[in-house]
Amino acid sequence: MDKEGSFKWVFIILIATLLIAFLWNQLPIIKDSVHAVLNPTAGALINWNLNIGMTLIVLIITIIMTLFQKYATDQKTLKELKDEQKILQEEMKKFKDHPEKLLELQKKQLEFIPKTMQLTMRPIIYTGIPIVLFFRWFNDYFVELGNPKIFVYFSWLWFYLLASIIFSMVLRKLFKVH
Q: Is 47 in contact with 54 (CB distance < 8 Å)?
């Protein structure tokens, strides 16, 4: 597989992740295997200290996902596409009073969407299934713990989403991911 990505593989992985999510309780081998790996590792961190442990887990997952995003995509092409989009947006500002020219530029801008999506979806091929497995495990693990609040207020899901957004913004700048 090249770094340009393939929608075929993304769809295959999406179907596989949906199957895993739906069969989690019906096929004990999936659930039991994931628990056997994550309970003594990620579970030990959460049991040690809920706030710090969950923060470290989210940071580690976000680092791995950011590295996949950087090295599984064609960063040079993505940067070129973003630069072209910036130039197009500047032109659009100049022609905001000329609807016919603006429409032409907007059509050009729409041409970037499939190319950009194809390039940026590639990391899902590598991270889709592990993320679903982690999310299913998180849900089981936190239900077992009585759904404790992280940093007094957040459920595991909200904490994961907010922390991963924050970590991702920092890591993308740090690793120069486009």
A: no
CA distances from 163 to 47, 78, 91, 95 (A): 19, 25, 36, 40
Residue 54 maps to a domain: yes
Residue 158 within any structural domain of the chain: yes
pTM of the model: 0.79
Give one DSSP letter per residue of 49-103, joined into a string.
-HHHHHHHHHHHHHHHHHHHHHHSS-HHHHHHHHHHHHHHHHHHHHTTT-HHHHH
Q: Considering only CA atoms, which of 11, 18, 13 is closest in space to residue 136?
A: 18
Domain of residue 160, residue span: 7-73+122-174
Consecutive H or E run containing 147: none
Strands of 94-172, DSSP E: none
Q: For 97-137, what is each residue's pLDDT tens digit? A: 778 777 887 888 888 777 777 777 777 777 888 999 999 99
**Number of domains into which the chain is organized:** 1
> Considering the domain boundaries, does residue 87 fall inside one?
no
As a 3-state breakdown, the chain gives helix, strand, coil percent values, each rounded to 5, of: 80, 0, 20
Centre a 10 Å sphere on the Cβ of residue 59 and count the other Cβ atoms it contains: 16
